Amino acid sequence: MIITIVSTLMLMLGYFLMLYGAVGFIQDKRFFFSAPKENLAVIPDRKERFKGAHVIGWGILLIAVLLFISAFALAIWDGARNRFGALRFFLRFITMLYAMEIYDIFFFDWYLLCRSNFFIHFYPELKSVDRSRFFGYNKKEHIMHFLIYIPVCAVLALGCGAIFGGIL
């Protein structure tokens, strides 16, 4: 259970770093495909905020990707060491991904987007946009993620279970 929690926290940190690198340093609107349309309309196309900002941003994104990979590697390594079967791998993976999605909903969408000045700090143009009504703007995507995670975790768990353990 501790490894599942640690792996989940690694995913959450990686997810935050991904957002921070893209929003704070790279600032390319192509990364904001899931942002509310009202936000995209007022965000200007920008060059680098300062010399080296893109390099810093891509470095942060690289760290985020490495955290994602490391989180799953740790979860798989511990499962293999403890002879997890497919069911236990599935429960671990689904817990990790569902917790990350809930983190996305409440920390990114509710807090960072609707309540804090995180995005306004990097894009002052967003002050004119009414943020209070954005919570839930992407609920279809979240529901889709919850549904997609089930077969993804099942395939990953069956593979890990076949290689390292068994069904149970």
Give a structural overview.
This protein has 168 residues and is mainly alpha-helical. 72% of the residues lie in helices and 0% in strands. It has 6 helices and no strands. The longest helix is centred in the middle third of the chain and has 30 residues, at 86-115. The chain is elongated. It starts with a helix and ends with a helix. The model has no long low-confidence stretch (mean pLDDT 83).
Uncertain segments: none
Roughly how many Å apart are the termini?
A: 16 Å
Report mean pLDDT, rounded to a whole number.
Answer: 83
Strands, count: 0
How would you characterize the largest beta sheet? none
Counted by DSSP, the helix tally is 6
Q: What is the global morphology?
A: elongated
Radius of gyration: 18 Å
Percent helix range: over 70%
Protein structure class:
mainly alpha
Strand-residue proportion: under 5%
**Order of secondary-structure elements:** HHHHHH
List the helices and strands and how they pair.
Elements: H1 2-26, H2 37-42, H3 53-81, H4 86-115, H5 118-122, H6 139-164
Keyphrases for this structure?
single chain; 168 residues; mainly alpha; 6 helices; elongated
